[in-house]
Amino acid sequence: MPTGDDTPGTYRPFLEPFVTPRFTARRFSNLAALGAVSFAAACATEAPFTAPDESSALMSAADAVASVQAGPPEFVPGELLVQFKEGATATERTRALGRVGGAVAEDILTAAMRAAGRRVGVTRVRVGGDVQRAIAALRADPDVVYAEPNWIYRHAATSNDTYYTNNSLWGMYGSTTSPVNQFGSGAATAWAAGKTGSSTVYVGIIDEGYMFNHEDLAANAGVNPGEVAGNGRDDDGNGYIDDVRGWDFDGNNNSVFDGTQDDHGTHVAGTIGAVGGNGRGVAGVVWNVKMLGGKFLGRNGGTTANAIRAVDYFTDLKTRHGLDIVATSNSWGGGGFSQGLQDAITRAGNAGILFIAAAGNSTLNCETSNCFPAEYPNANVIAVASITSTGAISSFSNYGRTTIDIGAPGTGIWSTVPGRNNTSSYAAYSGTSMATPHVSGAAALFKSLNPGASAAQVKAGILNAATPTASLNGLVVSNGRLNVSGF
Question: What residues are annotated to the active site?
Fold first, then answer.
């Protein structure tokens, strides 16, 4: 069991272990394979990731039922997500739903799904009876590909109550910087070498909303170039009106910042891309970047249905509008395996977008416990554990020898937050939620220095540069911690 010198306090777990047969497919990536990726082909066209084999990825009906019976993971009561087969007629769909007394709440067919050749999206279904019985019945139906709960996801970060020059921003330091901390990400070394990012590289923040007008974030707040602000029209045809700075999937509107409740998303944004060298506040891993918001976590968490929409939103922005979106940053977790969400992550991978995910805050071994979405085996996933300022794995952090990729600073991390009356403020939080944006910022930094790099090459660059760390040895794929100093 890993230990650390920090105090976890009252962290809310991302997820609890299932007492069920687990999803056994493992992360496709490993350092040997990553080491074979050639950077000589930096100008080559981006090769799509290979999707996991469907036969190994789909849960059995028994597994799906068991995951609901297990209890701890939360899901929306009385709701299912159902994927019907492409050839299923309206009559066959109605018949299948009639078996469980189900009614269609909505059909989700995103632009990214259509671009992938899908004519049938994911259907959100309301059922009046027992969810587990409905799952079992629908999974046995010949016209259904899968049925699953509409899982609820939550972030996990806690304030532990100023930043670079006063020794507070340890996660950005390195072994040769001043201030110094050998267990930081080494970002300050990169900055000193003139490596501060590029405004042509984008990161999607799938989280709460973020305070895009914060004094340390405004210069790096991205906009959707296909949308005209305030005209009340869906100019780019993606299904969202005036989504200039992103979209709020929880509230179904274009307000990606709704006040102090969006502190977690704002904290994440600051670690990725707070403006550096401006004499105030904090600095992100990358000083020049563009961030867009995909808000799906609200006051009561977020759902699988909205997570799918958020992931597909950024995939569509890249594939149809050409935005250089290197990654989405995902500091959240919970629920169980979702084929629908994994399919969305696969579509993102095929578009060359990394899905950087928090390992979770439950001190779980992800080899034997489920840690979704961090442990989806897709090649475009980078799963992140948390370390402390002394190099120990944080006492709350999940880990996994083949499921979690790398460690990064996550304990006592200062970053941007909205203050009273929506003023610009700062606070220190802890969690794998804080470790994850360090890696998301690293992806943006690497991409800025290697514009032609594919997603696989960006991932390889990050993992191959990891510094071997005793506390992480055998607990993460890379056996080490984030180090961007040599990018």
Answer: 207, 264, 433
